[in-house]
Design a protein that fits this description.
Blueprint (H helix, E strand, L loop, with lengths): L3 E5 L6 H9 L5 E6 L8 E3 L5 H11 L3 E4 L6 H6 L1 H21 L3 E7 L21 H16 L4 E5 L2 E2 L13 H6 L5 E4 L7 E2 H18 L6 E3 L8 H11 L7 E4 L19 H5 L9 H9 L5
Parallel strand pairs: 1-2, 1-4, 2-3, 4-5, 5-6, 6-10, 7-9, 8-11
């Protein structure tokens, strides 16, 4: 039985939506950990890179389930600051899983499609990972920590996310809108990597479904689950769709050549996820279309 749920990274683009949805669930008491942005008494500041701070908060809150969303998710930043990124992306997971194991709690870990190299999609949960960049490597390391710590823990792999943002740079999808809006300059966009942009509201509802399932059944979820929307899009196609839904000029949006970046920031070509396990359990929340989701997400930035 799960009565207390703790969401790390609860001020982030996914974490804050998930936190709010869980608050609406009467069967759970929900808390959030944040690094520096807090808006209410149940969101608590905590440096997840500091084991003493982590243990202090977990000992105080005593959660039954920890949904670990917090991470540095920008591949270039991860590669440029490996030590700091490792401390947050892997170190915090180690602290959390250790505490959970010692206190009979569970971890639902938010991972990424970047654990795959994108050469042989679609990927089911048993597919062999082969990350291409440091971010993917760290996500895979954390997955292994979570699964090896307790076979009742769960890993949820997700694709590129978007949703309601506080500023356009907050996610790798909405930041494209800056160039869409500025039709005075040519905007080269990648038409190479295939992505499956997924709205955070849909992810959050799926996670709520999973939490309720765990609370009711105790066990039964696979150790690894996949969730993503079904529309395949490149950055070029996302940008053109943004222009279309807002009736903006798009002649300045042009395809760029395939990227030649360093090995550390290389992206998978097509990391499509097979989501059949969640679908068969009835936990897969039907995602909204990209047109509907991006219109909702960006409408406040038109002016």
């Amino acid at each position: 039985m799960i009565s207390k749920v703790l969401v790390t990274g609860s001020s982030g683009i996914l974490g804050r939506v998930l936190y709010d949805k869980l608050l609406d669930e009467p069967d759970f008491v929900t808390y959030g950990l944040v690094f520096n942005r807090t808006t209410n008494a149940k969101k608590i500041k905590c440096d997840l890179r500091n084991e003493t701070e982590v243990n202090l908060q977990l000992d105080s809150l005593k959660p039954d389930l920890i949904v670990h969303c917090a991470a540095e998710r920008r591949p270039e930043i991860v590669s440029q600051n490996k030590t700091q990124a490792q401390s947050l992306n892997v170190g915090s997971t180690e602290f959390i899983t250790k505490w959970a194991k010692e206190n009979n709690a569970r971890v639902l870990y938010i991972s990424s499609d970047y654990v795959f190299d994108g050469t042989n999609p679609p990927y089911n949960e048993e597919a062999v990972p082969n990350p291409l960049n440091d971010y993917g490597v760290m996500k895979l390391q954390s997955e292994q920590l979570v699964i090896n710590s307790n076979n009742a823990n769960v890993v949820l792999r997700l694709p590129i996310l978007y949703g309601i943002v506080e500023y356009l740079e907050e996610c790798a999808v909405t930041i494209l809108f800056k160039k869409v809006l500025d039709s005075s300059m040519t905007a080269p966009m990648s038409n190479y990597e295939k992505r499956f942009p997924t709205h955070c509201e849909d992810v959050a509802q799926t996670i709520v479904n999973m939490v309720k399932y765990l609370s009711k059944n105790g066990t039964g979820l696979p150790s690894i689950c996949h969730y993503q929307a079904e529309e395949e899009m490149t950055k070029l196609e996302m940008s053109l769709k943004m222009a279309e839904v807002f009736c903006l000029p798009s002649n300045h949006i042009v395809p760029e050549n395939p990227p030649t970046g360093t090995e550390a920031t290389k992206r998978p070509f097509k990391s499509q996820l097979n989501c059949e396990k969640l679908k068969k359990l009835g936990l897969y929340h039907q995602p909204r279309t990209f047109s509907a989701g991006i219109k909702e997400s960006l409408k406040t930035f038109l002016n």
